[in-house]
Amino acid sequence: MPPAAATNLGYTPPDGGWGWAVVFGAFISIGYASAFPKSLAVYFKEIQEYFSVSYSEIAWVPSVMLACMYGGGPVSSILVNRYGSRPVVLLGGLMVGAAMVLASYGTSIIQLYVYVGLIGGFGLAFNLQPALTIIGTYFQVRRPLANGLAMTGSPVILLILAPLNQFLFDSFGWRGSFLILGSIGLNCCVAGALMRPVGKSIQPKPKTEPPECDAAVAEKAEAVDTTEQSASLQTEKGKSQSRSQSCVHRFIDLSLFTHRGFLIYLIGNVVMYFGIFAPVVFLTPYAKHQGIDEYSAALLLSIYSLADIFVRPATGFIGNSKWIRPRIQYFFSFAILYSGVCHLLCPLASGYVGLVVYAVFSGLAFGMVSALLFEVLMDLVGAHRFSSAVGLVTIMECGPVLLGPPISGALVDISGEYNYMYYACGLFMLVPGIFLFIMHYYNYKKLDEEQRQSVAVEMKTSEETVKLQIGPDDKTAHEADR
Amino acid sequence: MFCSRIVLQCDIMAASLAQLIEEGWGDYTMQQEEGEKIPCEKAALGEDRGIIIMSPSWTQLLFQILLLLVCCRHINTKTSGATPSPLAPVPTVARSVVLKGESQNETIEVLNPIKLELECTWTGDQDKLPNITVYWMKDENEIENSRLTVQLENEPYNLKREFSIEKEENLGTYSCVFENVSKINFILAAPQIGDVREKPIVSYVGDYVVMTCKMEESKPKPSSWNWYKKNGTDEEQIFPAEEPRYKIKNEDEKTKLVVHNLTEADSGLYYCGAVYAIATTKSPVKLKVITYWEPLKPFLAILAEVIVLVAIILLCEKSQSKKDGATGNETNADQTYTLTEGENKDQEGNSSVRQRKV
Q1: Are A190 and B207 within 8 A, CB to CB?
Q2: Which pTM value belongs to this model?
């Protein structure tokens, strides 16, 4: 394993036991956060008629929600760094529940933007980040598998929420459904209750300290939240630098922007996110455009989801194997490349059978990318800095996530054909895939070099200390001899 | 419509006729729609028709005068704008179908009153009977005096009939039947509203609801929209002027009915009607009004479940940590020891023996 991943957590993660309950809690949290914005589409038509607004105005509701969910990343990271995962997820669950209950009494579309979009979005952000972070604290050896299992929550919960929303809408109309969705959202609090902090005696220092930014106090904090690079070399450097930055570091680790692996991941992901969601959003319209009837087109989406559900734990398992784990970044780059190739080949798919094949392969691709998405980030920055890292990454991804589908939609509208959109999405994934491959090859080489250097320095210093110890003993021995 | 154009012409022609009269061509009595009388009396006749002896150069004017007489006479009678008189020319539409096989359906969209000429072509049968009986049916009832016995001579037989489609009762299914076996059905109907919502719209007591109906873009737009509520077996039309609770917003191809201050009695079946000259096509919309208590029940149930689960998990954790606290204090101490060791090492830099980090 590259030394950057040596987490220096200061303890041995359980890699099991209560960890599996935590994985289940994360499954629910991550699943709900990912699936909930997508599943609200059922209500739009009626809400649109009720408030007499246009379709684009109602489409702002999930957009605001997604924007707040991704933009709330850093806020979530700060809170997790300070208070740990559990309180933040409990707060997130309460916010989501309250948001939907308030929305069910809403009297204007603006109120829906605020309640569902703003409050709901931040609530989901407070679910997503902590759930990912806590997996890193409970698992080390089996972390890819745990991540893969937790990420499976997204398609599974979507599969449950979609028909449930339809049923609620038919029985209770949109107001009653929002009320009930509020109570369903409170189940995230149950997930939060499961997220017991690992080893209660080992608490992150900032929790027990007074909130002032004392230099001495901060130094102690820095000592515990050490950077993950070679300890002796970096800590001294880090100490002098960090004394001034200590306050900010306690909240969010901005030094990540100087971290080579983090930057590679960030650049690759930001470009990739332009093309990741559009193909599945346009799958059904594309099928109908080819002349396929509505039910078969909907079936394509189910096939896609099933492939997704199946491949996520499988990817986690493969990523855990001893051949892949040391070079898991290549596996991730391969997954992105494979997605890109899939989308580029989509226009060649002819007829329903071709589209089914495409749905299966792109479902597999999407699942692979999703399962590894946060695992590779943990691998690069280490579990300690992961919380800040994921916050910074999600706020950077805000732009591509929101702009991706509308840009693709514009491509479809301008050209009248879906081909160009698929080519564009394929390119958006192919280029980052190749970029990541090359950059990680370079990164692994550098990391190996650094490891060799740090081992050499260690050996040198231990030799010196041994010499020093032997030196005075010799003298005394000489004197004793005399 | 045709006559309204003639009304205009009446004015113009009246002016030129007046000119004629002044020049000594006689008078004609004409009564126009507004009841104005233009004295036009012809000495020779004394009735409302007149014959004038005139030179060939005036034949055009004569034709126009005759036309005027025919039409202006019609305007005299009090009629409502919708129903045309038998004399008003109605467009004739012809539809012709060749029968392939036993039975066939042809849908015809009718917007306005028309004269419909239906033609059925039958290519004959293997039985090759010399005489066959043909007749017309409307909605499963044979039309009187339409039965004919025909001699078939190795060539396709054409059956033609003209129908006057003026009112809603004239719409339906017209069929030409050959030998009680083969038939072609012509289904006459006003444009139907396509997407019908089968599930009811749900709303709440005290709230308002918006019900919409939309005619597809491809179909012709109705002249207006009406809304009806089903009361027992009747359909009562809704007039917003009488009941301010109801508001109807009409656009060309869609309509909205807004009902404020809902009560449970408002539940039921509503119909939106697209009004065409020939008929009004209706489409059902179901409304269900419930109280806030209905969704509150599942909400409270799920809330209770969440509270119970969270309590169980946290209590289990507390009791487990108490157990651990009582028995496993040493293990905790070990872990804290390792942590403090690490801390000390970092703080003191390269002190004594380096410890291997886990």
Answers
A1: no
A2: 0.72
